[in-house]
C-alpha cells in the first residue's frame, strides 16, 4: 500500500541513506549540528 502513496524505489532510498552517512562522517568535527543540517538541506534541495 505504501508503494502506491510514495512511488520511490528502494535503490533511491539506499542512495540517500548512504549519502547521509558519508556526510555525517565528514561532519565529525563541526562545532554544532546546525552546520550539519544546513549541509543536508543543501544536498537535498527538493523539500524546504
From TrEMBL:
UniProt superkingdom: Bacteria
Pfam families: DDE_Tnp_ISL3 (PF01610)
Transposase IS204/IS1001/IS1096/IS1165 DDE domain mapped to chain residues: 4-40
Protein's name according to its UniProt entry: Transposase
Lineage summary: Bacteria, Pseudomonadati, Pseudomonadota, Betaproteobacteria, Burkholderiales
Amino acid at each position: 500500500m505504501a508503494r502506491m502513496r510514495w512511488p520511490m524505489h528502494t535503490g533511491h532510498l539506499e542512495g540517500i541513506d548512504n549519502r547521509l552517512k558519508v556526510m555525517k562522517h565528514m561532519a565529525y568535527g563541526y562545532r554544532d549540528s546546525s552546520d550539519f543540517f544546513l549541509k543536508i538541506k543543501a544536498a537535498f534541495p527538493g523539500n524546504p
